[in-house]
Structure formats: C-alpha cells, structure tokens
Amino acid sequence: MLGRLLRLAYENGKLTRLPLLRKLKEAAPRQGFFEREQYEAVRRHLSPDLQAACAIAYTFGWRMRSEVLSLERRHLDLGAGTLRLDADMTKNGEARVVYLTADLAGLLAAQLDRVEAMQKKIGRIIPWLFPYLFGKARVGERRREFRKAWATACAAGGVPGMLRHDFRRTAVRNMERSGVPRSTATKLTGHKTEAVFRRYAIVSDADLREAALRITHGHVSGTFKAGAVDGRTLRG
Questions:
Q1: Domain assignment present for 211
Q2: Which residues contact 38 (CB under 8 A, 6 or more apart)?
C-alpha cells in the first residue's frame, strides 16, 4: 500500500524520485494438499450437495466461498458441458469457463435435480446452484459456509485440520502431474500469473518416491541415454 501511495505521488508531481523500499521476504506457501485417497475419504462424509461443491474445487482449484458457493444455476450448462464464472465473481476480475469432466457433470446434474425438487417443495425459484437444502430458516437461500460439516468430515476421513483452500494447491499439483500446460492451467484455476501458480505447484513425498522409482526403473531397464565422463562412455 505504501508503494502504491508513493507511486501515485510521483506520477502527480508530489515526489521528485521514488524511494527504495526493501520488502520483507515473502512467506513460504502452505504445504497442505490432498492425495486422491484422502480426498475420497473426506468426500464420503459430506452431504451430496457438498460433495459436488468440493469436486469443483478439487478438479479446477476454484476458491470455495467466493467462487464455488456463489455459483448460480445459470452458470452451469450441462448441454454444452461447461461451468463458468462471471468477471465480478473472480479475484482477478476475469471471467472463466471450464469444460466438465464426466464425473463432475454427473454430480452437478444430480445437484440440479435436488435444487429443482426443493423449488417445487417451497414454491419459489431458487437461483443458486448450492443453496441450503435443509433447515426451515435458510432453506433455498445461498449457502455461504459449511465449516462445521467440513471439520467433521476431515476428522472422520482421518485428515483433521485440512483446509478447503488446500483444494487449490491440489488442483495445481494434479494439473502439473497430468502434463496440462501452465498457460492452460492458469486459465482453469484463475491464477493471474505463472509465478503465483508455481507457488502452488508443491512437490510431495509421494512425488519424490515416484521420482526415485522412475530413476531406479531407468537404471534397471537400461533406458538412460549414453553419456561421456572422463572420456569414457557410460550407460545405465
């Protein structure tokens, strides 16, 4: 904020030069992410509507509260197989469109059925994709949180203390491991720059073990390329 104020002062002739600001070192990113079996274990202990919401966050890395839970039914097009966010719904101010996986399309189709059934029951239109489906006071209103249900599911799934924002790191890592180009991945997750995206591309112990296995397999099968060391040719 101070840097921005100084730049504005400089641009408007209030400063003759910009002072040098030495910034503190940026904090290391949180290391939390879900392995597939951990995600499945937590999801089993959530209600079907929250399972669908978490599937979006797990697949595309969307922010749970501001992006996933703010979705309206109009943002989902099952015919085209797409899900979109308007520009005013995203942190970077850019609209986003993703194509659904088969699993996610099935989950969201079932969610639409639940919302339509609730519409008929209460006799009014529900625009939200993830409204409250239970409780007399808030039924049909936009769901804004599920902290208690989340904490209970994580404890029951054997991973207490996990955050829903860990889905964002998980999605980035899964895309990296699947070979999705970063230019494409940043469009899916909504990261403004590749530098920010890289902060989420965390290497896990499982990744390191897999790398060791690949190296071992390369040595055993003799697939390493030949190389020269001290004039001698070596082969794995």
A1: no
A2: 157, 158, 159, 162
Count the neighbouring beta carbons within 10 Å of the beta carbon of residue 167: 26
Residue 76 lies in domain: 29-203
Looking at the domain assignment, is residue 84 inside a domain? Answer: yes
In total, how many domains does the chain have? 1
Check which CATH number belongs to the domain holding 87 and give it: 1.10.443.10
Q: Which residues of 47-61 are buried (b: 16+ CB within 10 A; e: fewer)?
A: eebbbbbbbbbbbbb
Asked, for residue 226, whether it belongs to a domain, the answer is no
The Cα–Cα gap between 223 and 187 comes to: 36
Classify residue 60: in a domain, yes or no. Answer: yes
pLDDT in tens, 123-179: 999 999 999 998 778 999 999 999 999 999 999 999 999 999 999 989 988 888 888
- Compute the chain's Rg from CA coordinates: 23
pLDDT digits (tens, 9 = 90+) for 16-41: 999 888 877 765 555 678 999 999 99
Angle at Cα 76 formed by Cα 75 and Cα 77, nearest 5°? 120
